[in-house]
Amino acid sequence: MSYRIADTLIAEENAGLNAAHEDDYGALARKLARRGLDIEAITGAVAGFGVAVPTWGVGTGGTRFARFAGPGEPRGIFDKLEDCATIQQLTRLTPACSPHFPWDKASDYRELAERAKALGLRFDAINSNTFQDQPGQRLSYKFGSLTHADRAVREQAIAHNIECIEIGLKLGSKALTVWIADGSNFPGQSNLNRVFDWYLESTAEIYGGLPEDWRLFLEHKLYEPAFYSTVIADWGSSLMAAQALGPKAFCLVDLGHHAASVNIEQIVARLVRAGRLAGFHFNDSKYGDDDLDSGSVDPFRLFLVFNELVDAQTRKAAGFDPAYMLDQSHNVTDPIESLMQSAMEVARAYAQALLVDRAALAAAQEASDALAAHRLLKAGFLTDVSPILAEARRRQGGGLDPIATYRKAGYRTRKAEERPAVAGSSSGIV
Ligand code: LRH
Ligand code: MN
Questions:
Q1: How many Å apart are CA 315 and CA 313, to the nearest integer?
Q2: pLDDT band for position 421 (50/70/90)?
Q3: Whether 280 contacts 325, CB under 8 Å
Q4: What confidence score (pLDDT) does residue 426 get?
Q5: In what helix (H) or strand (E) does residue 178 lie, and over which residues does it extend?
Q6: C-alpha–C-alpha distance, residues 112 and 171, integer Å
Q7: H helix or E strand, kind and range, residue 251
């Protein structure tokens, strides 16, 4: 029987923290009441909030230079589900995970769906992979996949995406995320127009294979692994494609997929306006697609994104139903600790955005009172909502201090005993 953290241990650990927590929660309740805010409404909203965990994120990540595996690495999708369930058990913020194929391939997907259900998890968007060649693959994706000059390669890539939809149907998923690495490294290597035509032609076939109640998430990325042009490099290309494909196609925003100074929250506002915001791959970055822990470098940027999302939610923007997912690479931390911390930082940005006095903000904006407007917005970000996040966890049986409780449980040590280490070092993101 593989080790699971006992709920009694979580309760014991919480017992030692309860008095201080209740004191902090009471103080924040009084502070927010002075601002005309009901803390219970915010805590309730946070308790209903969720962000999906990427199955590829529970194993130690790496770069092209090296990947330094840690103890108790998950050996396959069943181990990954256990680790995802532990993150949900302690944070109560991650009821779903987002799988990646063929990284998560299994012999019996019904069995996989049952195991996930038994662990209290469901599957969010399925991720396809035509950015690597698999052993025994007939045609290579070296020069592209859905936009390869050779129709046969495009067909192979389309077939893989259709296969991902079939797997997703067995897992109860309702969306397919398509990120392709297709692009060029030399000016002239690609016809920048024709490759977009091939993209539309190929994704139209994938779109045609979508069940009625599914959505197709198109993920743009400025560069890497292509370093001169990327076919779906920005939100504009993604939106053009989504609008050309049909009402079930949406644009997914990975925070790390933009040039350093891009105003991502404005991209979010535009995609919401177009009714085409698929959702997010949350992470943080300082330079490129660093896939660092959400909120670890620029938590204010994450808050500004959630300010647009809460604004859309508040005014009931048409077609607003974003999927929230993390997409990170944990190269130097215990991936479970990083994912718990990141889920809590995403929930923090949401809670802070809920504190913004939107009526007063609109009045200040109408009055062109720049500083008053900025201060009203910043007031949300400057409020320490930790007691609200903790209370939302506590009420659902989670930990008041998930990382301390996880360490106290010795989960990683137990998994190192259960999961024999895989010899030798490697490189690459997973
Ligand atoms: C591409 C990406 C994409 C995933 C991959 C693991 O950079 O963000 O979402 O398929 O990372
Ligand atoms: Mn991503």
A1: 6
A2: confident
A3: yes
A4: 67
A5: strand 175-178
A6: 7
A7: strand 249-254
Looking at residue 105, what is its pLDDT? Answer: 97
pTM as predicted: 0.97
| Cα(8)–Cα(358) distance, integer angstroms | 41
Tokens of 54: 């990427």
Would you say residue 408 has pLDDT above 70? yes
- Going from the Cα of 179 to the center of ligand 1, the distance in angstroms, rounded, reads 7
Across the chain, mean pLDDT equals 97
Q: Give the position, in ligand 1's atom list, of the atom nearest the Cα of 54.
A: 6
Q: Residue type at 215?
A: R
Strand partners for 122: 96
Protein residues whose CB sits closer than 6 Å to any atom of ligand 1: 56, 127, 179, 219, 221, 254, 281, 289, 327
Contacts of 276 (CB under 8 A, 6+ apart): 239, 242, 243, 249, 250, 251, 319
Q: What angle do CA 11, 345, 70 make, to 5 degrees?
A: 75
Per-residue pLDDT tens digits for 330-354: 999 999 999 999 999 999 999 999 9
The residue assigned the tokens 């010899």 is 423
